[in-house]
Write a structure and sequence with these properties.
OB fold (Dihydrolipoamide Acetyltransferase, E2P); about 450 residues; alpha+beta; BirA Bifunctional Protein, domain 2; 2 domains; 13 helices; about 30% helix; binds 4-amino-1,4-dioxobutan-2-aminium adenosine-5'-monophosphate; 8-stranded mixed sheet; 5-stranded mixed β-barrel; single chain; binds magnesium ion
Length: about 450
């Protein structure tokens, strides 16, 4: 029996290449599965093996009659995370979560663990699990979360690719700040200093003026000294940017996009969402239009809910949660005070105290998932903002060229992937929403 698999096969047609996810395509047939012992239970005469292969878990049942005494004893000794290849018949089974089980016929052990697997069935503390993240990833809950993450990312790409946006990769090593100088990771760059990008937006703007509708999608970095359940030092952000779009267009795009991501994930990852026991009702309600409120209305909501706030205050996680509790779907808060926002935000024509910006707050206490808005396209105003923020004008010489040559109204936003995954999966902390989280005081493994 061949241990290696044909990686080009889709798991559906050839039974020797079956995967658990595609097991229904092989009902009644003999298949080969490749995976690891997730659990093993024996009733003396029958073994019940839970096999995991990364796409799912399936129960494989084998007696002495089925596999012979020698194999029966060999399987009995198999410990957690033993790797194996097995052959068996796919049987319908109504008691099974996935509707099928395997009648075991034969198996070949590939490797036995050299030590006892450190993650057992008992409860482990988060610190222990985080230190064993490379193994924790194998647990069925983590697999489900990461499969949902992969689906969300695919939905993001499909959304923009299907609507005339071009993907533009922005650099990770950058000469200057985008989101304020207090959260920059600095790194030597030959004889100069460079910074890990906080956002691809500035390059997205240049790209939008070149290609019209673009999106930047990559890792971003913030040396944020906050140990909250919403902050990572390295996270993924998708940032659409559109030439000739204003703040209203930006909000239309943001709500259409988020509705699409949520509804498609429910449709394509129902099994995983059910496995992790996500309540789907609040997600099913994520339909546009989303409520849009001005920053000053948000201040009123806070005051009404015994959370004193005044014009000029920025919102943290607690404030966002209180505001979001007043709505049954994501809420967009627009026109924050210019003074508390990044240098590139466009000043509102009607009220010069305000910026033409928007944050989208997820329901159920998941906080801000989107930040964005219209960009200052007036050269003199932008210059003044760069000076106010004490940013080096020289570093933005290229960025000013975008206003010098064919400046147009333009807007965009950034959606944080991990916060979105946390919300959609209902996982309380972003550390479980990325394979290897990078947080303050955490860079292992
Ligand atoms: O609101 P932010 O800082 O906006 C920007 O970076 C803009 N330049 C984006 C743009 O307009 N193109 O970040 C956008 C989103 C947040 O709403 C949040 O979802 C996520 O990025 N985010 C973080 N996620 C995890 N950990 C952190 N430390 C994050 N900081 C921001
Ligand atoms: Mg923000």
């Amino acid at each position: 029996m061949k241990i290696t698999r044909n990686p080009i096969d889709n798991g559906r047609e050839d039974p020797s290449q079956a995967t658990i996810e595609c097991i229904s395509y092989h009902e009644g047939k003999d298949v080969t599965l490749r995976g690891w012992v997730y659990n093993l239970r024996s009733s003396g005469k029958i073994h019940f093996l839970q096999l995991r292969d990364g796409t799912g878990i399936i129960q494989c049942v084998g007696s002495v009659q089925d596999i012979g005494q020698e194999k029966f004893d060999e399987l009995k000794a198999a410990t957690l995370e033993t790797s194996l290849v097995l052959q068996g018949t796919v049987r319908k089974d109504t008691r099974s979560k996935i509707g099928f089980e395997i009648g075991l016929k034969d198996f070949q052990i590939v490797a036995k663990p050299s030590e006892e697997y450190p993650i057992g069935k008992k409860e482990h503390g988060v610190a222990f699990l985080m230190d064993h993240r490379h193994l924790w990833l194998r647990s069925s809950r983590q697999v489900a979360i990461l499969r949902i993450r992969a689906e969300i990312i695919r939905a993001v790409r499909d959304y923009f690719d299907g609507r005339g946006f071009s993907l533009m990769d922005s650099p990770i090593l950058t000469p200057n700040a985008c989101e304020g100088t207090s959260t920059l990771f600095e790194t030597p760059y030959f004889d100069e200093k460079a910074y890990l990008t906080q956002s691809g937006q500035l390059y997205g703007e240049a790209s939008a003026l070149a290609l019209g509708k673009v999106y930047v999608f990559g890792p971003t970095f913030r040396a944020e000294k906050s140990k909250t359940r919403r902050h990572l030092a390295e996270f993924w952000m998708v940032e659409p940017e559109v030439a000739f779009m204003d703040l209203e267009g930006d909000m239309d795009l943001a709500e259409d996009f988020v509705e699409y991501i949520v509804q498609r994930t429910i449709k394509n990852r129902k099994t995983e969402l059910e496995y992790i026991e996500r309540d789907l009702k609040p997600l099913e309600r994520v339909r546009k239009p989303f409520p849009r409120i001005m920053y000053e209305e948000a201040i009123e909501i806070l005051n009404k809910n015994n959370k004193p706030a005044a014009f000029g205050d920025d919102f943290g996680g607690d404030e966002e949660t209180v505001i979001s509790q007043n709505f049954d779907r994501p809420v967009m808060i627009h026109r924050y005070p210019l003074a508390i926002k990044a240098f590139y935000m466009k000043q509102d024509e009607k009220d010069p105290r305000l910026a033409r910006c928007v944050d989208m707050i997820a329901p159920e206490g998941y906080g801000e998932i989107i930040g964005g808005g219209q960009r200052e396209d007036d050269m003199e105003k932008l210059k003044a903002r760069i000076a106010e923020h004490k940013l080096p004008e020289e570093a933005f010489r290229w960025y000013m060229d975008l206003r010098r040559f064919g400046s147009v109204p333009h807007a965009g936003f950034g959606l944080g992937i991990e916060r979105t995954v946390a919300w959609i999966t209902g996982v309380p902390h972003v550390r479980e929403t990325i394979p290897f989280p990078r947080m303050m005081e955490k860079i292992w493994p």
